Amino acid sequence: MIADSLTQALKQYFGYDSFRAGQREIIEAFLGGRDTLAIMPTGGGKSICFQLPALLKTGVTIVVSPLIALMQDQVTALKENGIGATFLNSTLSGRESNQRSQAILNGAVKLIYVAPERLFNEQFLEFLNIVKNQVGIAGFAIDEAHCVSEWGHDFRPEYRQLSRIRNSFADVPMIGLTATATERVREDISQQLALRDPYIHVASFDRANLYYEVIPKQGADQSYIHLYQQIKKTQGAGIVYCLSRKRVDEIAERLRIDGIEAIPYHAGLTPREREENQTRWIRDDVQVMVATIAFGMGINKPDVRFVIHYDLSKNIEGYYQESGRAGRDGEDSRCTLFLGYQDLETIKYLIAQKVDPHTNAPLEAEQRIAHQQLRQVVDYAEGITCRRAILLRYFGENFHDNCRNCDNCLTPKPMEDWTVEAQKFLSCVARTKERFGAAHLIDVLRGSRKEKVLQHHHDQLSTYGIGKDRSLDEWRQLSRSLVHQGYLTPTTDGYAILKLNDRSWEVMRGQRQVLLPIERDAEPVVADSRDR
Ligand code: ADP
Ligand code: ZN
Fold first, then answer.
1. Is the pTM of this model over 0.90?
2. 308 φ, ψ (degrees, to nearest 5)
3. Are 169 and 137 in contact (CB under 8 A)?
4. Which residues surround ligand 2, an ion (CB under 5 A)?
5. Are 290 and 252 in contact (CB under 8 A)?
6. Residue 16 CB–ligand 1 contact under 6 Å
7. Which residue from 278, 300, 290 is spatially nearest to 248, judged by alpha carbons?
8. Is ligand 1 within 6 A of the CB of residue 51?
9. What is the β-pairing status of strands 85-88 and 237-241?
10. pLDDT tens figures, 372-425
11. Of the residues 6, 14, 42, 146, which should be mutated to test ligand 1's pocket, given the most ligand atoms within 8 Å of the CB?
């Protein structure tokens, strides 16, 4: 029976007794020559899905992988299992490259790892043709396949050319693997890789051992202290993600001064420094890696106990992926996102900088995508329902309401009745003819004498100045909450202009109550954490 021989092969080559959910079906499909798309969370066991078929088929399997570091690790691990594997990339000398090519043609190799840019050099394509004729090509495996999609969080233009492979080697089956793909990205992968009637496996993205929480940022010093406390209360290794290199250096330094073993990682360090810091962290010489998102892909440290995003993420997929580096060993771990509106502005600013390098014209499509993605992160961060449910819904999964392992499930935010204020706000949207954004609406409500208010004669409106009893921050919070709760519809580019919808009118007619979450009290700040 095939089932048994597969399990035997699994045991023989990798030493495992049984398949994890999905692996067998994926392997059977790909072994049978069918194009396959495997979507499994990080740590789900994707590698075996192409490695085992590679061992069981005649010919070599070409593995496309975006990171050189990742290739080396995988190849080393395979060799330790006595499996013929090699990699070809730009770091090799001509001589080494030749030796490896020879070994491949001698049939000593089952898996060849290559960087995508390598694939499209004519010389290499010629080499592949020779390989095909002499030893045969069993399949193509495209790791981190989401890189092919602009809708993913890590688009790499060189992946776009992978369809060329499909055209040149039409009869060779292809498997795409990724830990992250929304419905849209999934379709994009299928299309871009030109998969034919693929077998698609989508594993559940739920990571039950991860605790999700969001902490509002309140001023630089307060936020830092909260960060410090977060780290202090968790034993074991962790990652702190920041948006910029500068921030990474600052935070790493400050944590070190405060007695936490932290080191930086970002693209501004030399390759050697990066390598060294990574190794020290993996070996637990230091506790905390403070890094930009350049850090982490392909790093297999199972016992990461916390991942803190000290600055806001740019998109949910990235957040899921990065936070998912916690708890691969299945032990309880913590994923913390700091929500700061300043960061939001910074990201919006960066999005506005996305321009065509030649003409300087804004890249509108890209900007629109980026704004939508940012909106989704804010929806997650400001959400008052189960965080896990919000995340999983993003990946197209329905999750029951209470996970008992996120801040919103364990300590629901207290709610306050803000119906009257909501009615004032929505009426103001109506009176200004649904043509303005939150900032202007709040100016009108609070009776501002700003030029823009007077110019539009909005000081003449019945809603002018009826909101003086609430602060600017309170109105801002309400307007964001109205959007999140679906009482207002923003135009698609960011949060710009607010439009009314059916639900808005229900509120104005008094048919709906509007509740506003009140922030939980932050933990008391321990004075001695700073004043040593
Ligand atoms: P991914 O690429 O999906 O992040 P990996 O392929 O690196 O995941 O696998 C994650 C871990 O799970 C690895 O340590 C791998 O050896 C292990 N693993 C994979 N499949 C099995 C299995 N069937 N039984 C036990 N362990 C497995
Ligand atoms: Zn929950």
1. no
2. -110, 125
3. yes
4. 386, 388, 403, 406, 409
5. yes
6. yes
7. 290
8. no
9. unpaired
10. 888 889 889 988 889 999 998 888 888 877 899 999 999 988 889 999 999 999
11. 14
